Amino acid sequence: MTPVRWRDGTLEILDQRRLPAEEMWLACTTWQEVAGAIRTLAVRGAPAIGIAAAYGMALAKGGERDDAAAGLRAARPTAVNLSWAVERALASPDPLREATAIAAEEAARCDAIAAAGASLIPSGARAMTICHTGALATGGAGTALGVLGEAHARGRLAEVVACETRPLLQGARLTMWECMRRGIPARLIVDGAAGQAMRRGEVDLVIAGADRIAANGDTANKVGTYGLAVLARHHGLPFYIAAPSSTVDRATGDGGAIPIEERDPDEVLRIGAPAGARASNPAFDVTPAELISAWVTERGVHRSAADLVR
Amino acid sequence: MTPVRWRDGTLEILDQRRLPAEEMWLACTTWQEVAGAIRTLAVRGAPAIGIAAAYGMALAKGGERDDAAAGLRAARPTAVNLSWAVERALASPDPLREATAIAAEEAARCDAIAAAGASLIPSGARAMTICHTGALATGGAGTALGVLGEAHARGRLAEVVACETRPLLQGARLTMWECMRRGIPARLIVDGAAGQAMRRGEVDLVIAGADRIAANGDTANKVGTYGLAVLARHHGLPFYIAAPSSTVDRATGDGGAIPIEERDPDEVLRIGAPAGARASNPAFDVTPAELISAWVTERGVHRSAADLVR
Questions:
Q1: Cis before residue B167, ω within 30 degrees of 0?
Q2: Domains of chain A by range and CATH?
Q3: Model confidence, pTM
Q4: Roughly how many angstroms between the first and final C-alpha of chain B, as a whole number?
Q5: Fewer CB in 10 Å around end: N or C, chain B?
Q6: What is the DSSP letter of B241?
Q7: Residue A132: its chain B contacts at CB < 8 A?
Q8: CA A96, A100, A103: angle at the middle one, nearest 5?
Q9: What are the start-end ranges of the E strands in B8-93?
Q10: Which ipTM score applies to this complex?
Q11: B172: which chain A residues are within 8 Å (Cβ-Cβ)?
């Protein structure tokens, strides 16, 4: 389960839009194809798009490198890992080697996040999560789902409660698929059922990934995350964020300055709305730091934003 | 826009599962067919299923009436209007006349709800709603959507923000369709985007319908309603329930005693989850009275549960 693989000068990208129905690999030989795969969500997940973009830089010919950097960075605006990885590849004399290094580092970070985060999961816990934060999103063990996988391996996790995550159903399609493949007990709910699951006492904690964490700890993640954080607070449940430190953006002061990608309304409209209906489709939302119990990074568990950005 | 019509001994039911794509009428000549239409959500909305069930009683032959009453009541467990309407038809010497009377009364109640509720909508308001509470759900002007329609007619409503309402998308399919037909400006969002819309200041109030209101004011409605109520409270926004008094169940003390219908997990799973995945699919949730700013019935605006059940 890896989102991208490099073979003989080609970046192969597992097309996550087609999962779980079919496993199809896109062969990219230009940076533009990689940018297209990122824009259309063939590859998604903040760490994974950083890795893909770094390999995209390795596909850029000498004279194209500045254009490639700009084009890859612009493919999606919210996840800071994307520009972070592009900058590293751009600054390197050997972008391919840099991309390979970034992929290896992110995988190692996932392992450290999983180990640190598993200590937060009480025995017998039922953990709610949103979107997909596993191997396909990170190129490693995952962030939030990596923590839950490690807790499961330690015999502490009773169940993952996966929010389906409309409009693109990463929870239904990818989290459920990855949990089933890894033998982690998981149950799917519609996003609107999260509040009732908490009220009924079916959930012990919430853990999510992140696309960008501002210097004050405000955290952008998949739309719906903020609502879960408010609900968790209302029910007295801990709400955790798990992300590699590459997701922390010290240059962005607070969540209000994080650009929120507005995607094609058709993603919302196409499964039922009448022709001509209007929709808005923000892909992310921002959870203020005060609703976050702790951030888990490869450096450990951070109970305050000050400790996180230190 | 009417959910059911009686013609020459046949109850014709507009199949709402097929809307907005096509307008197909089911012709029911037995109470069992009516119960099936209610169970499968061909007709839905608490007042509308009460009306349909009363007509279903009119289709029952003399010796079947007790069986018909039990079968229609059991078609869906949460909305109290269903058993209320069935009891009335069962107690009547002329069930058809009783059904016609119930339909007329519910339509009149909708008009009174709309008039009373419109006073709650400030000028220029953007109102969030969930599921569908318009003409097709009530046989009249609607409950929550009736209020918004009246506010729009008075020039006070800037926009309806419709939550799509997974899994069956009554918001996307029916609220958007009805708003477009009535010329009410409406914008669709995924259910997970509700929190961010409030946080961004794009919403001034939330108004929803109800399937059953307990004696203490706790209110069962479409799953996701409770989450909106918690979010509204967190953002200091008013949260209103609009429903006819036939929805109030004085025999149920509080929300914990309201039966919550658990529907087929396939409704959640079928648009993306891997084969063999587990899901839960509660169709309703309960919002505690303390999160409700006011209930609007045909008798006016009730600021307390005591006033509501008086």
A1: yes
A2: 4-110 (1.20.120.420), 114-309 (3.40.50.10470)
A3: 0.96
A4: 33
A5: C
A6: E
A7: none
A8: 140
A9: 10-14, 25-28
A10: 0.96
A11: 268-269, 271-273, 277
